[in-house]
């Protein structure tokens, strides 16, 4: 297999203002905040061309969307993420590097489906405080932002409303970094499906440099597979990124988060980057500014910004 390499990719933004995968409104304004703080221009400043922006004004919210089992707003989530899937697929098939701005993390049902449709051999690096692996059976909250990976892995059971999601992600092509708040049901699923996870414990033990190497050795041993990075801003310590709906103490430092993005850029294999769960409605103005600015700089690092 010849190694996949993106040298100077064209970038497509998919701005997904959506918050119904969880109960706190506000993440739907994340994309606009990131973009209006100058993200697209910053990306062009790195020498890249931003040639498409899917700028959603919003998705259909079905106010009388009834629960399916425990799942909340299932049809609303399915419709929005399906639309995102089609957009990501289109840009990825056109050879673009896709930057997906959320929105809550249920959107990864769409972003990863789109990436895998265009790049079937891609692997996923999931950077998060949470595993987002709950099935409709194991979820304790019913919030779909805690469930996207069970659908992508095909372990969510048969829910017709989500049957558009092809279970194309293999457990051995998924790796986590940053976990520290994993539900009991998710711990069982991680073991059962042999999914590799580097929690904050391993980040402390080995250092972030070694952890990223080990993570890539697991999902991408020959460094030949395209990489989809799904970054939940709550992977960062709340002191670094406070404006997010489910903050968990003991997270990645500013540098650890950026190092992950820089190291993945250096592989030349990134085909998509998600930046999810920025919630400008939470915490004070200073905290929002800080969180938005960290979100932008994580994306710049993933797209090639260097310190020297
Ligand atoms: N994308 C996130 N921030 N997810 C948080 C998930 C929290 C919890 N595990 C749940 O299922 O609800
Ligand atoms: Mn999270
Ligand atoms: Mn998440």
Task: Write up what this structure looks like.
With 308 residues, this protein is of the alpha/beta class. The chain has one domain (8-303): Ureohydrolase domain (Arginase, Chain A). 36% of the residues lie in helices and 16% in strands. It has helices spanning 30-36, 39-45, 74-93, 108-118, 148-153, 184-192, 200-206, 208-219, 254-267, 285-302, and strands at residues 10-16, 49-55, 97-102, 123-127, 174-179, 196-199, 227-232, 270-276. It has an eight-stranded parallel sheet, with helices on both faces. Helix 5 links the parallel strand 4 (123-127) and strand 5. The longest helix is centred in the N-terminal third of the chain and has 20 residues, at 74-93. The protein starts with 9 loop residues before the first strand and ends in a 6-residue tail after the last helix. The model has no long low-confidence stretch (mean pLDDT 96).
């Amino acid at each position: 297999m010849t190694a996949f390499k993106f040298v100077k990719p064209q970038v497509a933004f998919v701005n997904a203002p959506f918050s119904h995968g969880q109960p706190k409104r506000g993440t739907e304004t994340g994309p606009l905040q990131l973009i209006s703080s100058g993200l697209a221009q910053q990306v062009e400043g790195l020498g890249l061309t931003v040639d498409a922006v899917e700028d959603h004004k919003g998705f259909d919210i079905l106010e009388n969307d009834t629960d399916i089992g425990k799942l909340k707003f299932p049809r609303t989530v399915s419709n929005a993420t399906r639309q995102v899937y089609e957009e990501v697929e289109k840009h990825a098939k056109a050879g673009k590097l896709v930057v997906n701005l959320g929105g809550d993390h249920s959107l990864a049902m769409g972003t990863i489906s789109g990436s895998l449709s265009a790049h079937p051999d891609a692997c996923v690096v999931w950077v998060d405080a949470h595993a987002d692996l709950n099935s409709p059976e194991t979820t304790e909250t019913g919030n779909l932002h805690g469930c996207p990976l069970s659908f992508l892995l095909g372990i969510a059971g048969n829910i017709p409303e989500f049957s558009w999601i092809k279970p194309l992600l293999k457990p051995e092509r998924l790796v986590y970094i940053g976990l520290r708040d994993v539900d009991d049901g998710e711990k069982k699923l991680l073991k059962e499906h042999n999914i590799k996870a580097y929690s904050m414990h391993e980040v402390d033990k080995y250092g972030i440099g070694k952890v990223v190497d080990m993570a890539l050795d697991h999902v991408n041993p020959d460094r030949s597979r395209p990489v989809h990075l799904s970054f939940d801003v709550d992977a960062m310590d709340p002191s670094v990124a406070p404006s997010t709906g489910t903050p968990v103490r003991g997270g990645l430092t500013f540098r650890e988060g950026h190092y992950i993005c820089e190291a993945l850029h250096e592989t030349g294999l990134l085909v998509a980057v998600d930046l999810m769960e920025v919630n400008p409605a939470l915490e004070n103005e200073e905290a929002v500014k800080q969180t938005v600015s960290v979100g932008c700089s994580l994306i710049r690092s993933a797209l090639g910004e260097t310190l020297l």
